[in-house]
Inverse folding.
């Protein structure tokens, strides 16, 4: 029994056939078109190739960036695909494969978080919150061993917790959202601001960006921080502080036993996690009189979304 997992990213569509243990046994990768019909056709084509290769596909699990309705079929909104506005993605793909198997749609952060829960750092926990620190800040919530989607499929949008009254504008249309202060984008912004304020301390960061502050990118800040650069470490301390604040706010509502932190930014390890842990304890309600959740790095790797999509499709 196998499942076809699809991860629709901003630049590529990753696909994989997974066995009953969610182990990947065959892969595909194609560029992501911006046209919704072309995306559907690509997914249907991969499904047909998988069948032709002799795989007994039982379901298709699709991980997609955007808001997914509670029906696990409909994309209610997606910033990168304008056509995905109350768009029944499951039905459109299903029509192309003659509805041979069910097509289950899940939010990409939910898929990655669930992948961590079943095969990564969240294994063995009862109540888990996963946070993905990437371009933005994604979230996934597991309560009593079940993925929590909420009444309208909109749970775990933790990157849009309102953290700063009248703060920085967010792409969602609001201001002061958590992801404006904890993300790869905010890491770059904190570093650029520090370089402008303290150019006397910015030699290494300026070397890495060729002297053009506008070209300073997250991986450069990560490299500088790992080398011990004072401004690189400052930028990570800032996003770590806000990550800790965000986890403390989340814990006041959900009281999880573990936070699993994923995304490209967490590759620096304790450079990010130590300030996050410190500020989580600092801003946690009743901190001195309660148990604290473990805060750990994700371990399922880049395939977490595919693994999660495959597992959820059969659930």
């Amino acid at each position: 029994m196998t499942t076809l997992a699809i991860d629709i990213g901003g630049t590529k569509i990753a696909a994989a056939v997974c066995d009953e243990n969610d182990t990947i046994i065959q892969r595909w990768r194609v560029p992501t078109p911006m046209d919704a019909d072309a995306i559907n056709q690509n997914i249907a084509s991969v499904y047909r190739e998988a069948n032709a290769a002799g795989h007994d596909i039982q379901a298709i699990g699709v991980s997609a960036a955007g808001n997914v309705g509670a029906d696990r079929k409909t994309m209610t909104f997606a910033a990168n695909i304008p056509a995905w506005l109350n768009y029944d993605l499951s039905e459109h793909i299903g029509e192309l494969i003659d509805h041979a198997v069910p097509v289950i749609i899940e939010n990409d952060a939910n898929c990655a978080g669930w992948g961590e829960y079943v095969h990564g750092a969240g294994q063995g926990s009862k109540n888990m919150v996963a946070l993905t620190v990437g371009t933005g800040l994604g979230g996934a919530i597991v309560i009593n061993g079940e993925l929590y989607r909420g009444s309208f499929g909109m749970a775990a949008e933790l990157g849009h917790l309102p953290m700063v009254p009248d703060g920085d504008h967010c792409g969602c249309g609001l201001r002061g959202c958590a992801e404006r202060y904890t993300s790869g984008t905010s890491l770059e912004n904190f570093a650029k601001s520090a370089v402008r304020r303290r150019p006397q301390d910015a030699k290494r960061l300026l070397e890495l960006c060729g002297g053009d502050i506008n070209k300073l990118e997250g991986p450069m800040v990560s490299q500088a921080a790992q080398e011990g650069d004072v401004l690189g470490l400052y930028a990570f301390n800032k996003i770590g502080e806000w990550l800790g604040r965000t986890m403390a706010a989340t814990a006041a509502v959900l009281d999880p036993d573990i936070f699993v932190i994923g995304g490209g930014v967490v590759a620096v390890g304790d450079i990010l996690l130590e300030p996050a842990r410190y500020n989580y304890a600092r801003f946690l309600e009743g901190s001195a009189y309660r148990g604290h959740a473990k805060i750990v790095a994700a371990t399922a790797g880049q395939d977490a979304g595919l693994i999660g999509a495959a597992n959820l499709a059969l659930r």
Q: What stands out?
A: The chain has a mean pLDDT of 95. The first helix runs from residue 36 to 52.
